[in-house]
Amino acid sequence: MGYFPSLYPNLSIGTYWIMAIAGMLGLFVCILLHEMGHAIIARAYQLPISRIVLFIFGGVAEIKKEPSHPRAEFLVAIAGPIVTILIALLMYDLTMLGESSGWSPPVIGITDYLAKVNIALLLFNLVPAFPLDGGRVFRAILWWYKGNFGWATKVTSAFGVGFAIILMCLGFFLLLSGSFIGGMWLIIIGLFLEFAASSTRTKLYIDQEIQGQKVSKFM
Questions:
Q1: Selection from 109, 90, 88 nearest residue 16 by Cα
Q2: pTM of the predicted protein model
Q3: Are the beta carbons of 196 and 164 closer than 8 angstroms?
Q4: Annotated catalytic residue, options 35, 66, 99, 194
């Protein structure tokens, strides 16, 4: 039984389809607004955004260069979660208003779903593992504390790889337990996070190796 049928029984199949589509579209709009929060603050710090990419399980505002100081890194990173908190509060208020005003169950179901899914996304995003928002906030704090961007990136990238491995292990456990869809989702998300964290760490190593070297050495 799906999410909406289990919470709102005795509705028509067509209504469940409409709720599912509306919930999916609403989720993508929420993710887009989250990434726009990052982009707006990034542009305020003259950090160019190449594009905003939406995935089935999230989104990425692709920033062409790293912030020049910890404050910018912190504010750019925290902007997305703040937007998500505001969306979750708005959806929760709409759900409460709908229940007190007698709105139809499908409408209440959609706003309630969006409130819950935004809270879930917020909690996941705030895990201090790079490249999640929590990892970027953690990197900004470490960068400010040590004054070393490279060291902060290495630490948070290591957290990111570790968190990704935990997700993949949980995914395999769910697969063995018979939960194929849930297990595959965790494995896919874990692979994505591991690739992003490892790529960031590799790029840092390359940048450190070529920094200060003459161009002729690589020709």
A1: 109
A2: 0.84
A3: no
A4: 35
